[in-house]
């Protein structure tokens, strides 16, 4: 009958030390992993607000407000106050030829006479109603309008001669510049921004499709409700994917800017990039410590240089940067193998 091999006490202690060390490491890093996910979520939500606010300001201040300012200057051009057809025709023909943002433009007197340009037949009733309000209030106006598969901004600027409003400048403007502004955020991993009208219909493209404009819509009430209820809880977007989001009302015709970040790659990948190297370092360090013990106790070989125990203690106290630990481990390995 074969005699059973006895497991040495040293081997038992070594294995037990390895199990305990790894268990503590796994528990510690599991706690850290989920804590980092929570912190990462908060960072993403805060980042969405910061980025969304910048996009809102860019749309409203850099585009809409400057647009009003530019058109207001046009309204004071010589010939407009007198509604001089020849001067207006030369001036606006030049403006139209040198600026791609203007799809159409017209000048209409307060008596609804078209002095320059034309008004789309399907828009005339709505345009005349807006013109009456602009004339009555003396205030500029901007409205969102749809034609076929595109959206445009209809801008109305009063033409004033002294204290009297004598006419209106009408500009039909492409929303392409707004689309370019929202697309600028797509360089960030898993993040996108888009603008919808008051009914939730896309007026800019998404990062997944250019074909959503004026065709696809979101449940804008549900999106706002989800975000208002809990900003740190993901909701399903128009694709059915879970995202974090923020929304920002815009200053024209009930439109809303929405900025969203995918839940999975954004949060988990960022945490994994931070935590996994730390786990690898600890496992590598644990292995070296155990090898040191094995060489010392089994073979009587002392390891010179900084011990791994000291490195781990310093790392735990935050005295050793993560990027320096591998260098220290390599130094120990080199001391252990002077001929390599």
Describe the protein in words.
The chain is elongated and about 100 Å long. It is an alpha+beta fold. The protein has helices at residues 9-75, 85-97, 124-137, 176-183, 220-229, 263-298, 308-316, 322-336; strands spanning 102-109, 114-117, 141-147, 150-161, 164-174, 191-196, 235-236, 242-249, 256-262. Helix 1 (9-75) runs antiparallel to helix 6. The chain is built from 8 helices and 9 strands. It has a 5-stranded antiparallel sheet, sandwiched between helices. Strands 6-9-8-7 form a 4-stranded antiparallel sheet.
Q: Which ranges are low-confidence, i.e. pLDDT below 50, for 5 or more consecutive residues?
A: none
Mean pLDDT, rounded to whole units?
77
- Name the shape in a single word: elongated
Strand order of the largest sheet: 2-1-5-4-3
Structural class assignment = alpha+beta
Count, helices: 8
Q: In whole angstroms, how far apart are the ends?
A: 46 Å
What is Rg? Answer: 34 Å
Instruction: Give me the strand/helix succession.
Output: HHEEHEEEHEHEEEHHH
Main sheet? 5 strands, antiparallel
* Proportion of beta-strand residues: 15-25%
